[in-house]
Amino acid sequence: MSKKDDLKDFNEIKLNFKKKIKNITGESKTFPKYTTQVINLANQNAQGTRPQVGGNMSNLIQQCPTKTYEGWKKWYLESHPT
Question: Which of 3, 6, 28, 70 is the most exposed place for a label (fewest CB within 10 A)?
Answer without folding.
Answer: 3
